[in-house]
Amino acid sequence: MIDKRKVSRDDIPILARRDAKSRRASRPVPAPAQPKEELGVRTLITRARGSVLLSLDTELERYGVTGAQFEVLKNLFRNTIETGASLCRALHYDTGSMTRMLDRLEEKGLVRRERGARDRRIVLLRLTDAGERLLPRIRPAARRALRRHLAGFAPEEIECLKDYLGRIIANGRRQDVPAPAASPGRSKGGAVR
Description:
mainly alpha, 7 helices, 55% helix, 5% strand, globular, disordered C terminus
C-alpha cells in the first residue's frame, strides 16, 4: 500500500503506469485462434452419423429406447426383415451386438423371437403389440432429431444430400468392380480425404 502523503506530483505518472500494467496483467489473455481443421469426407460422414444418433438417443430417452433400437423396431415394422442375420446386413451390425440389442428389446417387451414353422433352426423376429403401439409414438421424436440437423437446408439441398448419400451407398455395394489404379501424374489436390 502506498502512503499518499509521501507521493509527489512527479511520482503520479509512474504510479499510473504501474497501476495500468498490473490491471493488464490481471486480465485473462485470450487463447490464440486455432486454425480451422480441414476434415475429410470419411470423418465428416462419421461425425454427422454420430451427431444424428446422439440427437436421436436424446429424443427417444423418455420412451426407453435408443436410436439404434428405433432402427431395429422400424425395420421389423416394415415386415421386410425377419431374422437377426437380415437385420445385421441391413443395419451393418455384427451378430454379437445385434443379439445383445435384441435381448434388450425382448426384455422391454417390444420384440419376440419365434422358431420358424418350416425350419425350426431359423429364429424369426416379430414386434409385440407393445412394440407396434410404441413405434408410431416415437416416430415424431425421430423426425424432430433429423429436422434439427437439417435446419437451414433448402428442399433442393436435402434432395441433393439424399442423392449424394445414395450414390455413396451404391458405390460401396459395387464390390465386383476393382478400384482404379492411381495414375503416376495425379496431383494430391484431387485426392479424396
